Structure formats: structure tokens, C-alpha cells
Amino acid sequence: MFRPKIPTMPTPTGQVTPPAVVEPTTVVPAAQTPPPAPVAPAPAPSRPMVQLTPGTALALVGGGTAVVLVVGAVLVSMLLAVAITGVSVAVCAVVLRSLLASETKRR
User: Fold this and answer.
1) Using CA atoms, how far apart are residues 69 and 76, in angstroms rounded to an integer?
2) H/E element holding 59?
3) Among candidates 100, 82, 79, 78, which has minimal Cα distance to 90?
4) Percentage of the chain modeled with pLDDT above 90
5) What is the DSSP letter of 23?
6) pTM of full prediction above 0.70
């Protein structure tokens, strides 16, 4: 029940052909031909120009400002979290140091 089943190799069905014999061939260099002349690129179809109206420009400026403010708030909050963590670790170190120092003075 708990023994793994080892798959058996399937036997080929149908007509089996022997492997083909590959004979080496000689390489004959071709006559030197000049490289083809470069083809000029076809002119790109003219695309419509993007027109910025005052409304779309204002929307772009507003969106960019919002992104900058959000990213700035996230970065400032991360910096604040690191600063608070550092201060709390420093306070813990001072408290432990004073506890250990007072214990050694009592002996």
C-alpha cells in the first residue's frame, strides 16, 4: 500500500526504423557577392500630436503633486518609525545599565 510504484519504460508500438546514417559532406565556399545596399526606412505614418489643454495640464500637475506628497508621507513615516525604535532601544539600554550597575553596588 505504501510502496512507490515505479513506472515501466513503454515499449515502442508500430514500425520501428533503424537510425539513419549521416554521411559527411564537403563545404564549398560560394563566390563572393557584394553586400546588399541598405534600404532606406519607409517614412513613418504621421501620428496625431498630443494637445495639452489647460485642464489636462492642471490634472497632470495635480496628479504628480499627489504622488509626491504620498511618497513623501510614506518616507517620513518610515523615518519616524526608525527614530522611535532607536530611541526606545536606547532607553531600554540605559535602564538595563542602571539596573545592572545598582545590583553590582549592593554586593
Assistant:
1) 10
2) helix 54-106
3) 82
4) 41
5) P
6) no
